[in-house]
Design goal:
71% helix
Length: 170
Amino acid sequence: MKGQNFGLLYFLMVLGQIILCNFTNLGPYVMLTMLPAMILCVPLSVSTSACMLLAFVTGLSVDWLSEGLVGINAAALVPVALLRKPLIRFFLGEDLITRADSFSIRKNGAGKISMLLLLSTLVFLGIYIMLDGAGTRPMWFNLTRLGVSLVCNYLLALIVTNLLTTDDRK
């Protein structure tokens, strides 16, 4: 059922991200985002260029409808889409890519999926925080923000991955 409704779930999570950006302010050190996990869960049958276009449109829509700096989520999310298949290939294996099979936490293990989520979230947050600070904030602030946000977003990414991926095991 989840595989058939991926588009609807993805759209609802984009709306959830817009609401999250507009109505949650946990301070200057915490930034909550579901976007990297959502891009990782795009079916593997979708090409990298189509996924990058989806990431750009998703990031731009979140920027346009929630945050004041238009283009920052889009600029941070497109590299995650570019690295999606190489990261999945590295952590989950080449056969998953060639078969365009789905992955899930139960099927592939929490450790592998956790490393995949942490690295993709680190790429997203690193670019986002670098662009957001733009040389105006000290390095210790940016590193603290990166670390605290990475921990908070990891827990959110596990929930998103569990919702968007299918478990084909019988």
